[in-house]
Design a protein that fits this description.
alpha/beta; globular; two-stranded parallel ribbon; two-stranded parallel sheet; single chain; 5 helices; 125 residues
Length: 125
């Protein structure tokens, strides 16, 4: 039921799972510590599940704290591994997340990186 994971599961290409704790997103008044604990628990479970079921040559899981999405993508793209495409869930969050998503789509266009956003809730922008 997770579009991006289902997509990479059908591929033999290496992939990276990336979740950022972005300072501008954390500063939003709607973000609460309980949300962050829930996210962290899910990331730990995901890391354990994927690490035990994946070939280390095709899978890497990275969690980056306190970094912007664009700077992190640029760092990965320039210095670690050229990004072939970006898969994400389409978010329907607060204004800051909408603006971040627009910036990421723009960055992908500039880098000529296909970006695929999967609907996750039935609600569309």
């Amino acid at each position: 039921d997770h579009g991006p994971f289902a997509e990479v599961a059908r591929s033999t290409n290496p992939f990276l799972v990336l979740y950022l704790y972005e300072p501008d997103q954390l500063a939003e008044p709607t973000v609460h510590g309980s949300h962050l604990r829930f996210i962290q628990e899910g990331l730990i479970d995901l890391d354990h599940t994927l690490s035990s079921n994946s070939n280390s040559e095709t899978f890497q899981c990275i969690t980056v704290c306190h970094a912007t999405m664009i700077s992190t993508l640029q760092e990965i793209h320039d210095n670690h591994h050229r990004i072939g495409r970006l898969l994400a869930h389409e978010e329907t969050g607060h204004w800051a997340s909408f603006m971040r998503d627009k910036a990421v789509r723009k960055w992908c266009r500039q880098q000529k990186i296909p970006m695929v956003e999967f609907n996750q809730t039935g609600v569309t922008r």
